[in-house]
Design brief:
Length: about 400
């Protein structure tokens, strides 16, 4: 009866709202981790049949850490809807509008929502329509680059930026390095594209069903082209590779591992078998706390996931400031490269696992904001964003 108390700690979450509408089959949850930064909070909506409240809670906390690490005064939040991600047509429309109606009070009080696994920008518009709240969104993430929306590029690109910086700490150059990539969806496809541009050799890609592996390298361009029409079947149909179990991806003989799916896929047992020297994640919370310590003891360079996968919030921030698509990659480069180098350098000097150190620093920011007599308001948050990302300078260069 009181199991929900097991997911509380000294920071939060502040609020958990479960919503249910049997008429349309809606079952959902919103977790607001904290609103100490002037009442504003944000995070994506995940739609999967096996999502859990605890998963959403952990993801909401990861968003708090992500915003704190990026210097964005915003609290974390996350939402979940129990449904198949490929639900389409009128059923999807009705479900999203019902969810919007159910969470209207949270949207009115400062919740900012984004897309996540199983959802997209069109869903966000329907949710706001259901809540009868204007959707103040310019469509930046849907602007096309090389035939795909910008949102398909940003998170994967950020993970590659982090991997490039971390590789120097691992004693090698990303150019020519072997990489195993988990996931081949929007973010995974983006990572594959920019790994190729960085000169890395992608030797393994996994989906929920399987892993393909070729030590000499995969045809990334061919896979990306096939993915546009086949989705995950582009991986299943790939001929020039070994087809392995999906979990074999984590222990392949590669230099870089990029987790890109669900939380806590790398546990104690998996961590002991990892051969990669660098891990830079697309996924949120892919590694358990115990596994983080094991990897640190083995001198595996692990970039905190909420630093390596911050590309998505960079798009959202630039959108809020009426920036352009050209600015996105400049901001991601500066933000993720500098944050990666800083936390890895500090962690090495202090003899502490990077994620643990980054968490401690983020928690200090949350506690300091909670004690502040005059919390940051939304306008101040935007000013802080502009200063943090040096967007004025980018505008002047445009």
């Amino acid at each position: 009866m009181n199991e929900w108390r097991d997911i509380l700690d000294d920071l939060g979450p502040e609020r958990m709202l479960h919503v249910y509408d049997p008429a349309v089959g809606l079952q959902g949850v919103v977790v607001v981790d904290t609103t100490v930064f002037g009442g504003m909070c944000g995070g994506g909506i995940r739609m999967l049949p096996d999502v859990s409240t605890n998963e959403i809670k952990c993801l909401a906390r990861a968003m708090t850490y992500k915003f704190c690490s990026a210097g964005f005064p915003l609290g974390g939040a996350k939402s979940g809807i129990w449904a198949e991600p490929n639900l389409g047509g009128e059923k999807r429309t009705v479900l999203m509008k019902a969810f919007g109606k159910a969470i209207k009070p949270l949207l009115q009080s400062g919740l900012i929502i984004g897309a996540d696994i199983g959802t997209c920008a069109e869903d966000l518009a329907l949710i706001h329509e259901g809540a009868e709240i204007p959707f103040n969104y310019t469509g930046l993430s849907l602007q096309e680059k090389e035939g795909e929306p910008l949102e398909n590029h940003a998170t994967g690109y950020g993970a590659v930026v982090a991997a490039r910086a971390a590789s120097e700490f691992g004693g090698f150059d990303l150019r020519g390095a072997t990489v195993a990539l988990e996931g081949f969806g929007k973010a995974g496809g983006g990572a594959a594209r920019y790994l190729l541009e960085a000169g890395a050799k992608v030797v393994a890609i996994s989906t929920i069903a399987e892993t393909i592996y070729n030590a000499d390298g995969l045809d990334v361009r061919g896979l990306l082209a096939a993915r546009r029409t086949l989705g995950d079947k582009a991986v299943s149909n790939y001929a020039d590779a070994q087809h392995l179990d999906s979990r074999q991806l984590y222990t392949l003989p590669v230099q870089v591992l990029i987790p890109g799916a669900r939380p806590y896929v790398i546990d104690r047992e998996t961590a002991t078998g990892i051969k990669a020297r660098v891990i830079a994640s697309i996924a949120n919370n892919p590694i358990t706390a115990e596994a983080e310590e094991i990897l640190f003891s083995r001198d595996v360079v692990v970039v905190p996931d909420f630093i390596s996968n911050a590309g998505g919030i960079a798009i959202a921030a630039i959108d809020l400031l009426n920036g352009t698509a050209d600015m996105v990659f400049k901001v991601i480069d500066g933000l993720i490269d500098s944050n990666t180098r800083q936390i890895l350098s500090d962690a090495r000097r202090e003899g502490i696992a990077p994620r643990r150190l980054a968490e401690l620093r983020a928690r200090e920011k949350v506690k300091a904001a909670a004690k502040a007599s005059s919390p940051v308001n939304f306008e101040q948050a935007l000013q802080a964003l502009q200063a943090r990302f040096s967007l004025q300078g980018l505008v002047d260069q445009a």
